[in-house]
Amino acid sequence: MINLRTRKVIFTVALSVALSSGAFADLNVGIAGPATGSVAFLGEQQEIGAQRAISDINAAGGVLGEIINTIVVDDACDGQQALAAAQQLVSAKVVFVNGHMCSGTSIAASPIYNKAGIIMMSPASTNPRLTDEGGDNVFRVIGRDDDQAVVAADLIVAEFPGKKIAVVSGVNPYGTELAKGLVGELAKREVVPELVLSFATDRSSYASLVDQLVAAQIDVAYLVSNSPRDVGLIAFEAREALPDIQFLSGDALSSEDFLLVAGDAGVGTLFTFGPDPRTLPSAAVVTAAIRDEEFYDPAGYTLYSYAVIQAWAQAVELAGSFDKGQVISALQAHEFDTIIGLIGFNEKGDVTGVSNFVIYEYGTETYFQRP
To answer: Taking a C-beta distance cutoff of 8 angstroms, is the pair 191, 156 a contact?
Structure first.
């Protein structure tokens, strides 16, 4: 059996050949996310969800009678590579893009798609700038970091009053924005963090950062990065010196890669994420199919990626056209029956109709949603 990452390598070669030969069918849909790099797991979740949705839609007759062809490009969660990936999709004449996953890549690529008349919808990008500053072609099915910061601040005030707080963020648009939002929300609640720190991502050790946490005798550390590996390594290194420290984080921690790195040090970590679609009756059939046929548990953003394709396809059917303006009007005017629930979009392109963020906790093997 060819695994997903191998298929991506094969596809990258096929893509370059097809672009030069004009071999694609008319109805091309792009999937843009990280197939390589430290957050490649995000691209794996995205592609499995999107490809499953497209396969299901094609099996039912396609969209407006057209069968969807998928084109997968790798942005490596890097802003510059996202520009190249977006240009590839424009050259392939895609009518829609599922992506990007990382906030920085979504923000970088969105003007390219807008200029080309292409709608994009992210399953995972939470930075408010994406829809606040993006064009009318930008949508997402996940919540915003300013909403996520509110949930995190309320959690800190309710469960950790009087504790020494550190807000620690990776140097990327996701981490920086979410940390900034949390500090602002804590200020509204008259809570001032003991430390506000940032760190370069993808390091082999965070000993100097941990030293600062130890020196300040931090009780609660809010650690946010788009790489669960970073957060897991900080937790692993900090736990020995601060055995009672409580770790908190954001939605990027919805990958069990965190626990693979943190080990026992990560047990009890709390984080915010959207409601888990795997628990919804609306997602039961798809969840079972992915588990049985792909041998993959559709955790994290997998089913959000499926919902992206559903919402776009339904909007096209309602519009009766693939025209950008007509599909945008349909997206803004209607609700869509997806596996994450009945959703809509406001004038900015932010999702409506679902609870944006709830609280999860890591046990010894996986995470679970708190009651």
So the answer is: yes
Residues ≥6 apart with Cβ < 8 Å to 248: 152, 155, 156, 220, 221, 222, 223, 269, 270, 271
| 215 & 225 share domain | yes
Q: Which domain holds residue 34?
A: 4-143+279-352
Same domain, 324 and 263: no
State the pTM of this model.
0.91
How many domains are contained in the chain? Answer: 2
b/e per residue 179-208 (b: at least 16 CB within 10 A):
bbbbbebbeeeebebebbbbbebeeeebee
In sequence order, the β-bridge partners of residue 119 are 96
Q: Which of 254, 273, 292 is the last residue of a domain?
A: 273
Q: How far is CA 301 from the centre of its chain?
A: 6
Predicted local confidence at residue 261, as pLDDT: 96
Q: Cα(first)–Cα(last) distance of the chain, in Å?
A: 39
* CATH code, 243: 3.40.50.2300
Q: Which of 21-30, 121-130, 178-187, 305-314 has the lowest mean pLDDT?
A: 21-30
